[in-house]
Amino acid sequence: MNNTDLFDFVFMSMTVLTGVGAIDVTMPQSQYEFARGDNITLPCSFKSAININTAEAVTPIITYYYPIKKTSITPPYKGRVSLDVDVLNGKANLKLSSISLADNKEFECHVQIPDDEDGNQAASARLVVLVAPSTPVCKIQRTAQYGQDITLTCASAGGSPMPTYSWKRYCEHNQPVPQDPQITDKDGILSLYNISKDTSGFYICTSQNKLRAATCNLTLSLMPPSVNAITTGGIIGRVLAYLIFLIIIIIIFFFCQNK
């Protein structure tokens, strides 16, 4: 099985086992979700019609051969994995400490008992490691000028599962503003069309997954075109007046020189 880790509980008893039956190995759920860094348990149960010799003590294991007490733990898991076994009650629970994204995979519990090979000898479950979204970064793409189309972007560097994004706008009185139907909000990209003073405001982006949420914000400010026009017109008018005044002075100067 691809991307699947196996933990075995193998019985190798020298005692003659009698009886006919079928082993049944189960894991209660097909998927488990935990936050990164948690210490977790993946439960595994088994049933057999064969009598099992429980005279030897059972130790926490990954692969354990009963009753010869042979244990095998693969190097990546040494120091943070154990198997909680209760033979009488048919339990073999896998314990993992400080789980990381590397543990985001399928785990299979396999129980092998001599003379009991019929039935279901294995069960599997998916371990989903949850990672909170990192604090997103909000940006304005292009210069915010009156009448232009611009986009606001929001993105988190990490998160498992992948976070979803949503934008909200607030006015100067910190009141939420209903979103314009012409505005599109997809995958953290907020597209604003033909922007005006009414587009100004305080924008908050929320990045969220099953574990928790994180936010970033920015302020969009615009001046109406009339103000820009008046400002530009005033500057041009002053420049023209200065040039006219300068021309008059030059004419008077030459007129006086010719007398």
UniProtKB/TrEMBL annotation:
Species in which this protein is naturally found: Astatotilapia calliptera (Eastern happy)
Listed SMART domains: IG (SM00409), IGc2 (SM00408)
- UniProt domain Ig-like: residue ranges: 133-221
Cellular component terms per the entry's GO annotation: plasma membrane
Top-level taxon of the source organism: Eukaryota
According to the record, the segments passing through the membrane are: 235-256
**Sorted alphabetically, which keywords does the UniProt record give?**
Membrane, Signal, Transmembrane, Transmembrane helix
The leader peptide range reads: 1-22
Pfam families per record:
Ig_3, V-set
Instruction: Check the record and name the SUPFAM superfamilies matching this protein.
Output: Immunoglobulin (SSF48726)
The name this protein carries in UniProt is Ig-like domain-containing protein
